[in-house]
Amino acid sequence: MNTRPAWGLLAIGALIVIALLVSPFWLDPLSDYLEEEEVIRPFPDAFYTDLSAEEQDMYLELYADKPQQAQAFVEARLEEPVMIDELPPDYSELLLTGTFSGLGAIYAVHGNVFVYRLADGGTAVRLEEFDTVNGPGLQLLFSREPAPTTEEELGQTALNMEEVPRWGLRGNRGNQNYVVEGVPAFNVDNYDGGSLVLYSTEYHTVFGFATLQRPSQ
Predict the structure, then answer these.
(1) What pLDDT sits at residue 104?
(2) Residues 6 or more apart in contact with residue 67 via CB below 8 angstroms
(3) pLDDT band at 1 (very low <50, low <70, confident <90, very high)
(4) Cα(164)–Cα(158) distance, rounded to whole angstroms?
């Protein structure tokens, strides 16, 4: 019995199978399983090149607990700084002063605070040599607490817009003026020993505070 044709067919079949296995059409999907799984990077490339190892660790720690908040904070942090340089307002009296303290590397805040009685009888807050990291929904507001670090420590009065003025932060660097308007119940004397707070209303997070006191005579 002649088996050569059968062996020939088997050889041809084997060559076809080998050709299919080494074909790019098969290798591409197989490579997904063969290649080592890539590490997921939750933040933009600039995060890994522009921030210190300490800052990266703090954001990654926040990401493990609150990923959406961490990504929003990093996105704001990587935005271009906004510089504002305004002259002091026309004032008649310096009422309160303070110096900002930040709450860590990812909530860094620096600068001086001056609260003035204006020549027209109004009240204004001035920030000088101010510098902070950007953050989502940053606002300035008063608290009767001297050193609040959480929303709870701010006190209910601080979040009452009928009694306490608040301003959206216009720039994260420079010298800036904020005038008290539309809050007739506000009494600046209540904040001697209190603070001016930089606060993220979007994520209910205190970035820093300046304890206020009357200027030394």
Answers:
(1) 85
(2) 42
(3) low
(4) 6
Pairing relation of β-strands 173-179 and 83-85? parallel
Q: 195: how many CB neighbours lie within 10 A of its CB?
A: 28
- Shortest CA distance to 105 belongs to which of 208, 201, 176, 199? 208
Which 3 state secondary structure label does DSSP give 21? helix
Distance, CA of 145 to CA of 114 (rounded, Å): 17
Closest to 79 measured CA to CA, from 55, 47, 102: 47
DSSP strand pairing (138-143 vs 123-132): unpaired
Q: Record the tokens describing residue 67, joined without a space.
A: 């990923």
Strand order in the sheet with 138-143: 83-85, 173-179, 123-132, 109-118, 91-102, 205-211, 195-200, 138-143, 166-168
pLDDT at residue number 179? 97
- Kindly report the average pLDDT of the chain as a whole number: 86
- Give me 121's structure tokens: 């009888």
- pLDDT score for 164: 87
pLDDT score of 162 = 75
